[in-house]
Design goal:
Blueprint: H1 9-17, H2 19-26, H3 31-57, H4 82-111, H5 117-142, H6 147-171, E1 179-180, H7 184-210, H8 227-254, H9 259-284, H10 289-312, E2 314-315
Length: 337
């Protein structure tokens, strides 16, 4: 049995006033623990996208017809609501797991020694994005799965994934000013690639909002555009992103860039190829649910690869305190005659 230390009234008051400071004074996580905490938030951000897609693709979007309760009379799903209620309520409960992962990242960052305020701020940024998206998810239900709110819900989750990924990267870096590893022109090409990828994902939400997977078996409004036309635009943008990824890789090769950016550009190209295969197969097979779900997962992986490319183009070395070396040997004074 682990002995629980007794707390004084002053310590209890301190814990109530500032629990993070109270924990930090008594716990110092290892760097590996901080990295794992940051990675758990990344994993949960991807998982919440996948499970949200499952809610949509199984027609369970209104399995819980109201919010914040599941029904007007019940906080949770009931047996009478069937599988759709269970799926929708399960996805809502997964939000608490996501909050726990983000909370763990905040606590680990705050308790690390030395304390890095930048990491704590990134953790809190994740928390507020999660809270905002939870409210937006409730609005999605209250407005009957309006496709524009559904698209915004997905894009805000992508923003959460971005912050979580930056946090994970910053855990492994120092707090010194970033030093570019490539020239300005190469960096601008990478940012152009990121903008194109962001536009690709945004148009993808329009494809979904106009397509046949409305998210519920009831009459759900759709985005009033030609689905085939917007799908063609989505495919064209995908080829633009692929072309920019290939161009970036060749440019990095030409300027003899470090191996890190080269590997990240290669990884992005491979992910884009896999995502493209899934996209074309689902288009020509009338968008089966399983492939649409894999395509949503692929969207997260593409964006992760894009962000990693951007982050690989600079470095923040960990500052190491200078250790004084041994004093230089001084010649002995000559002996007196």
């Amino acid at each position: 049995m682990v002995r629980v230390p007794k707390l004084t009234r002053a310590e209890i008051a301190q814990a109530a006033r500032n629990p993070l400071s109270f924990i930090a004074d008594r716990w110092t996580p290892s760097p590996r623990t901080v990295r794992r905490a940051a990675m758990s938030a990344v994993v949960m951000a991807v998982l919440i996208v996948v499970t949200g897609g499952a809610v949509r693709l199984t027609g369970s979007g209104l399995g819980c017809p109201t919010w914040p309760k599941c029904t007007e009379e019940s906080l949770t799903a009931t047996r009478e609501m069937g599988i759709h209620g269970a799926i929708e309520f399960g996805n809502r409960m997964l939000t608490y797991v996501l909050c726990a992962a983000v909370g763990w990242a905040i606590i680990a960052a705050r308790s690390a020694k030395p304390w890095r305020r930048s990491l704590t701020r990134l953790g809190w940024a994740q928390f507020w994005v999660v809270m905002g998206n939870a409210v937006l998810g409730g609005i999605v239900v209250l407005v009957g799965l309006n496709p524009y709110t559904v698209a915004a819900h997905f894009l805000l989750t992508t923003a959460l994934l971005t912050v979580a990924l930056v946090t994970w990267q910053r855990v492994r870096e120092g707090d010194v000013a970033p030093r570019p590893l490539v020239g300005k022109a190469v960096s601008q090409l990478a940012w152009l690639l990121a903008v194109a990828a962001g536009l690709l994902i945004t148009v993808g939400t329009v494809v979904t909002g106009a397509g046949r997977h409305a998210g519920d078996s009831s009459d759900v409004p759709r985005i009033p555009v030609d689905w085939k036309l917007v799908s063609q635009l989505h495919a064209d943008l995908a080829w633009v992103v692929v072309a920019l990824a290939v161009a970036l890789w060749f440019v990095l090769k030409a300027v003899d860039a470090p191996v890190g950016p080269l590997h990240r550009a290669r990884d992005l190209f491979l992910v884009l190829m896999g995502q493209g295969v899934i996209g074309y197969v689902q288009y020509f097979t009338n968008t089966p649910e399983i492939l649409v779900g894999l395509h949503m997962l692929g969207s997260c992986l593409v964006w992760i690869a894009v962000v990693r490319v951007l982050l690989s183009l600079r470095e923040r070395p960990v500052a190491v305190a200078a250790v004084p070396g041994p004093a230089a040997e001084q010649p002995e004074p000559a002996a007196a005659g």
